[in-house]
Amino acid sequence: MLLVLCGALTLVTIDAGTGRPLLMGTILVIGLGHGLITPSVMAAAYQGLPRASIPGATTGANILIRLGGSLRTAALAIILQLAIRASVPGATGNLRQAATLHTPELPTQLTAAFTQTFWWAAGLAALSLLPVLTLPRRSKASTS
């Protein structure tokens, strides 16, 4: 989760001149962070469960992961729309519509809207660290 937070914090530093390699590398780091945390969370969720309960736990965990991801995506989309509306004069919040305005300030204004949204994403990632820190650790007796 720390990789996700670091990636999100990198995205809050972008400006209108930020190149694609930095953006793509940052998205890669965020994706790696998500990919690394999921198996750990799943393993912790199954600890102590009877073998017969694992299929039900898998189903429940998959549902929660998908709902949580969808809710987070929807919330960030709404935050981005509000930020576009606030940052780009004459914009309705729709990115495609805002891009048609063709003003010299538009790249800077849109970057500001995205940066505001990335701050929210970083905050959500930081909040997500709290439950991750409470995951049970493997005891020394179970590792030997």
Detailed description of the structure:
With 144 residues, this protein is mainly α. It is elongated. The protein has one domain (2-143). It is built from six helices and no strands. The protein has helices at residues 2-11, 20-46, 54-87, 95-99, 106-133, 140-143. The model has no long low-confidence stretch (mean pLDDT 89).
Largest sheet: number of strands, sense, barrel closure: none
Average of pLDDT: 89
| Total count of strands | 0
Alpha-beta classification? mainly alpha
Alpha-carbon Rg, integer: 19 Å
What are the SSEs and their pairings?
Elements: H1 2-11, H2 20-46, H3 54-87, H4 95-99, H5 106-133, H6 140-143
Primary descriptors:
about 140 residues; mainly alpha; about 0% strand; elongated
Characterize this entry briefly.
With 144 residues, this protein is mainly alpha-helical. Helix content is 75%, strand content 0%.
